[in-house]
Write a structure and sequence with these properties.
alpha/beta; Rossmann fold; 6 helices; binds NADP nicotinamide-adenine-dinucleotide phosphate
């Protein structure tokens, strides 16, 4: 029986590459995303490479859609061995916290932070004991890195996601569910842009390691390149 991983925002970028690498390792992947057409294309692309990938309609900014997706997974008779919270937004109008309309921060937090809480909330009954949760964070959310110069609402959202990661690790320890955050580095995707130094293969490497290889006792931590880094 293949273990099952659910990946949000899996139709492109790092999420899609995580699905591909886990597919190669024999995982069944649930590709979650908000656009049915893009999802089907992504699932077909992975199937053509010989991997078990299924689309799952799920908008992380819409709690009703997340609840419906959880019901759908239940109906398919599946349980989940790993959850990768990868979906996120970085808005082009995210240039200043104080002078920009509050909606920029609100929208960013809704997707990047509250969306993660909501996905964990709805999928918790489907997560096996001993499962793992991997949250795609960023060095931009680090409280020990220098601050300033780019996308402040996005950076605040990733600081909050790191804090959420630690709290969830504590709350879910009783079910032996490991919860960790990853900085993938600066990666060439729609979000990272063409000038980024890292490939998607490299960006997916540490999340894949946490899902497929890392000991489950590692929890409540922040990783880059398979090494623990400071919050
Ligand atoms: P990307 O290329 O912009 O892809 C983002 C993915 O998230 C897309 O599949 C997108 O779907 C999906 N998404 C956005 N909002 C969603 C929603 N409401 N519901 C469902 N899916 C949604 O980003 P990426 O570079 O692969 O980034 C993946 C993760 O790594 C993110 O958490 C990001 O913050 C983190 N990260 C990236 C970098 C980098 O340099 N790229 C650096 C540090 C951290 P659509 O196709 O429908 O838009």
């Amino acid at each position: 029986m293949h273990p099952t991983v659910l990946i949000t925002g899996a139709n492109r970028g790092i999420g899609f590459e995580i699905a591909r690498q886990l597919g190669r390792l024999g995982w069944r992947t649930l590709l979650a995303g908000r656009d049915a057409e893009k999802l089907n294309a992504a699932a077909q692309a992975l199937a053509a490479e010989g991997y078990a990938a299924e689309p799952l309609l799920l908008d992380v900014a819409d709690p009703g859609s997340i609840a419906a997706a959880a019901r759908e997974v239940l109906q398919r008779g599946l349980t989940v061995d790993a959850l990768v919270n990868n979906a996120a937004i970085l808005l082009k109008e995210d240039t200043a916290l104080v002078t920009n309309p509050a909606e920029v921060l609100e929208k960013t937090l809704r997707t990047n932070v509250l969306g993660v809480r909501e996905v964990v909330h709805h999928f918790l009954p489907l997560l096996k004991n001993g499962a793992c949760i991997v949250n795609l964070s960023s060095g931009g959310g680090s409280m020990s890195d220098p601050v300033g110069g780019w996308s402040p609402a996005y950076c605040v959202s990733k600081s909050a996601l790191n804090a959420l990661t630690r709290q969830l690790a504590y709350e879910l320890a009783g079910r032996q569910i490991a919860v960790n955050a990853v900085c993938p580095g600066w990666v060439r995707t729609g979000m990272g842009g063409a000038r980024a130094p890292r490939s998607v293969e490299k960006g997916a490497e540490t999340p894949v390691w946490l899902v497929a290889e890392a000991p489950r006792r590692l929890s409540g931590r922040f990783f880059r390149d398979k090494r623990e880094i400071e919050w």
